[in-house]
Amino acid sequence: MLIIAHRGASGLAPENTLAAMEKALELGASAIELDVHRVEDQLVVIHDRWLQRHTDGHGLVHHSTLAALANLDAGQGQRVPTLWQVLECIDGRCDLNIELKGRNTNQPLIELLSQAQLQLGYQPQQFLISSFNHPKLMRLKQLQPDLKIGALTASCPLDYARFAEELGAYSVHIDVNFAEPEFIADAKRRGLKVFVYTVDEPEDMLELQRQGVDGVFSNLPDQARATLGSHTI
Ligand code: G3P
Ligand code: MG
């Protein structure tokens, strides 16, 4: 089972920062999830729409500027990195699940992925792009049909696996609270990978493994590896 370091190794370093990415790599992660919003013409790596939970700043992320963000403390002296800085830091050493939040992210994403392949040597299959915003995923898939897409849901919609299949998604990303065996079986029958978030409890990890899910997002990837087996991270 794939263990995806959620917001980097966010149980061990400030989430979505370069320190969290480095920690995940140090632990041998083969995949990292992170969240991006658009600021000016760039994507920046931060979870919330608002700055105050993650940083010493205030206000909406998309109203901020790159210059202002660069001066904020994102915890333990870390900065809010741009996606490009994270791509440079990871340098192709693991796969990346980029979760699109906020507005107008598709165009800068497409440009950045192409630049990452040309300048940093990433392979296209290293990227999995997910979002709770399904119209956005549909538009992205139209723009880049080969892109691996992960359809996120925080609830349990009827016919969700069918929708993801019709979207041409690679995977469905579901909340651990709704990881029902019937849903998992339906998604897998349709050829979709099933990834479950956020899973930090060993008991949940083992049950999901028994149910045949393909991966879990964990804030504690080292603990997940200890629980699930050494080769899986
Ligand atoms: O991508 C999995 C998970 O990160 C989705 O929810 O709110 O933690 O970004 P959230
Ligand atoms: Mg996320």
TrEMBL record:
GO terms for biological process: lipid metabolic process. It holds the Pfam family GDPD. Residues 1-228 form the GP-PDE domain. SUPFAM superfamilies: PLC-like phosphodiesterases (SSF51695). One of its GO terms (molecular function) is phosphoric diester hydrolase activity. InterPro entries: GP_PDE_dom, PLC-like_Pdiesterase_TIM-brl. PROSITE patterns: GP_PDE (PS51704). This is Glycerophosphoryl diester phosphodiesterase.
